[in-house]
Write a structure and sequence with these properties.
mainly alpha, single chain
Length: 385
């Protein structure tokens, strides 16, 4: 009896949810359905230059804890660029030792502005666009916001392109002939017809998730963390098993020396640091949701460890890949592209799927939310399309 009641209740709940989804989709068929209702500010006057996103975070939205910060960095650090950046250090002629201390020092340097800027959001519960007014003033802060917004657009494009290469692996794993699509685009386009198809498919898959409010994406980021972490470990293990170990990584000697080596180390370290400085700048966009401000300081431990972890995976995989394929392959998607046959294509499918999920999650957390907060600054009093 109890089971029947529970089943009926679940069925009724799913039916109501399905009806709401159908009604929501019906509304989106017209331009007016994409107009968001005006959201009022939390503390400022009704006609002031503010709204709920650019104002102080309401208490009911302060739902983040220290564990949420850990989950956020798990999600954000697990991306293809973190894997590639470390693996490419091996590919250019340095050893795992230089790569490791470049990772540790580079990421540790990022934590300084990360924690200091994050403390603003954690204590005052405002986003980067508002926090920047304390340094630049009300009007000049718009220049800083525009620069950050443009940077987010560039990174969004980079992450989307990387995601499209992972989408290629998903499709070619099912239909190998997908790679043979004839190219009808000129060389000046910088992309082939097949790559354009993958790009459009990835973008189409990503777009609906961009419409979900950030405070409702918690379980997506948990899902991404589990999938990407499991796939990364499985990739490293599979390559090491096939190569009979991690390759010559432990005995590898640098192919450069002297000042050339020193400058290469500094360049690598700068590349690692620079890839996260945009995030360190706009981190108040996320720490504003913390219930207790002391959670922000744990980032100094979480971020370097997690970002270095995915980098170590990349270093080991690149070394094992050299044994198998004859060269250092620093892109995890390109590693999967080497896998053929039924079992190889199956592995390529799951690797491609995990990096598609990874890039969508990183795009949302690192680029889309930040850029949207920046855009709200310029027209906070009206509805957004």
């Amino acid at each position: 009896m109890a089971f029947a009641s529970a089943t009926a209740l679940m069925t009724s709940s799913l039916r109501r949810r399905g009806e709401r989804i159908k009604e929501h989709i019906k509304q989106k068929k017209s331009p007016s359905g994409w107009v968001l209702p005006r959201q009022m500010t939390t503390f400022a006057d009704e006609d002031s230059w503010s709204n709920i996103d650019s104002g102080v975070t309401p208490i009911e939205r302060r739902t983040w804890s220290t564990w949420t910060v850990l989950g956020f960095w798990f999600s954000d650090a697990l991306n293809a660029q973190g894997w590639e950046c470390a693996a490419s250090i091996i590919a250019i002629g340095l050893t795992w030792r230089e790569a490791l201390y470049c990772l540790i020092i580079g990421y540790s340097m990022v934590t300084i502005p990360l924690v200091l800027n994050g403390a603003i959001g954690a204590h005052l519960h405002v986003n980067f666009a508002v926090a920047s007014r304390s340094s630049f003033g009300f009007y000049l802060s718009r220049a800083a916001v525009v620069i950050r917004m443009i940077t987010a657009l560039f990174w969004h494009a980079i992450q989307t392109y990387t995601g499209s290469t992972a989408m290629t692996q998903i499709i070619r794993a099912i239909w190998p002939s997908y790679l043979n699509i004839p190219n009808s685009l000129p060389a000046s386009a910088g992309i082939t017809s097949q790559q354009m198809c993958s790009h459009i498919l990835f973008w189409s898959l990503q777009f609906p998730l961009l419409l979900i409010p950030p405070h409702k994406l918690r379980w997506f980021f948990v899902f991404k963390t589990v999938v990407v972490l499991v796939t990364s470990v499985a990739t490293v293990i599979a390559l090491c098993v096939q190569a009979g170990g991690a390759g010559e990584i432990w005995a590898q000697q640098a192919t450069v020396s002297g000042s050339a080596k020193d400058w290469m180390i500094l360049q690598s370290m700068s590349s690692i640091t620079g890839s996260w400085l945009t995030m360190a700048t706009n981190i108040p966009d996320f720490t504003r949701y913390l219930k207790k401000s002391n959670g922000v300081y744990w980032q100094a431990l979480f971020m370097p460890f997690l970002a270095s972890l995915i980098g170590v995976f990349g270093i080991i995989a690149a070394s094992a890949g050299k044994v198998l394929y004859g060269s250092y392959i620093w892109d995890p998607v390109q590693l999967a592209a080497q896998w053929d046959g039924p079992s190889g294509r199956c592995g390529a499918f799951f690797v491609g799927l995990s990096w598609v999920i990874a890039q969508i999650g990183t795009n949302i957390s690192a680029n889309v939310i930040s850029c949207s907060n920046d855009m709200v600054l310029f027209e906070p009093s009206g509805p957004l399309m």
